[in-house]
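Holo model, flavin mononucleotide. Inputs:
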Amino acid sequence: MSMNSFGHLFRVTTWGESHGPALGATVDGCPPGVPVTPEMIQHWLDKRKPGQNKYTTQRREADEVKILSGVFEGVTTGTPIQLMIENTDQRSKDYGDIKDKFRPGHADITYFQKYGIRDYRGGGRSSARETASRVAAGGLAREAMKAMAPGVQITGYMVQMGPHQIDRTAFDWDQIEQNPFWVPDAQAASDWATYLDGLRKSGSSVGAIIEVVARGVPAGIGAPVYGKLDTDLSAAMMSINAVKGVEIGEGMSAAMLTGEANADEIYMGNDGQPRYSSNHAGGILGGISTGQDIVVRFAVKPTSSILTTRKTITKNGEETEIITKGRHDPCVGIRAVPVGEAMMACVILDHLLLHRGQVGENRGIIG
Ligand SMILES: Cc1cc2nc3c(=O)[nH]c(=O)nc-3n(C[C@H](O)[C@H](O)[C@H](O)COP(=O)(O)O)c2cc1C
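Output:
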């Protein structure tokens, strides 16, 4: 069984472990002729890189990407693209004492129950180091998208940390890059810094909600029933480590609305194109994009590795206790932001390619 791949035409397979020599992504199905350099992909990896501020793990990884295949004279050749990132700061000894114990909230116990063997060094394959491979693939997807849908802009940001939500009336796109939390609200950024500092010093952790928006996606992208754009986006976001909930548009709150409030009214814009009075649908109807912003939110659980003793068991079934030492983020939601963006990029590109394959230029024109 091979469960390490995703995507229909833009097919991404990730490989590698937290403490192995390297990890990466093999991307099959990328169109030929896309200009790509390692620097273009590195830009996105630098956003996810650990150790950039006191709120993210102090593991020092350069996360330097190498392109081993599929690119010749600066452009993709249409053959498989191998992206590799070497692990340079593996301190396996940090994890030696958890060799025979299962860390609560981690996948140690389930990997062992499934495979009968586990790489205990930093969680092995279940470690979120794997998400570096996704970000590399997402960087490539962004470059490939430029030729197919040049107007697409994908942006992720945090909208909630623990119980603290952003003030939507203070939403400012320019703020997102200005603070360590990728939060579009300057006041929230300042309040959250104090809040997270307290949690970090006490060795605790907290969850978060991340929103990822794709602007400029043309109408008509997606597929009905089993290949819905929202189905693929949800699966992509849910596959990120520590994600426990995904919403599109109004999401769970749609259950509280009436039909009048929820159905986005349609009118003709001054440019002769259909427009909507609101976007409760999150830019997707019947699994197909409306041309509005595609809005996805996902909830990330609190970091499980905390400095408080927790009860657990050993491989032999003995009850014991554990403190997870090592280097950890007080809120892994922060570093999940570029990962969510990468997954959005891969899914949108995949559906642009599927659309081109099946429908080409024969799309319905209104007006
Ligand atoms: C970018 C990122 C970094 C993460 N870093 C840590 C970490 O430092 N410590 C930790 O306990 N969990 C971390 N996690 C979460 C774990 O990888 C995850 O909870 C664990 O593998 C169990 O999988 P599950 O939560 O998806 O069930 C991180 C998640 C992401 C997305």
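Residues 333-358 form the longest helix (26 residues). The chain has one domain: 5-359.
Archived with the compound record.
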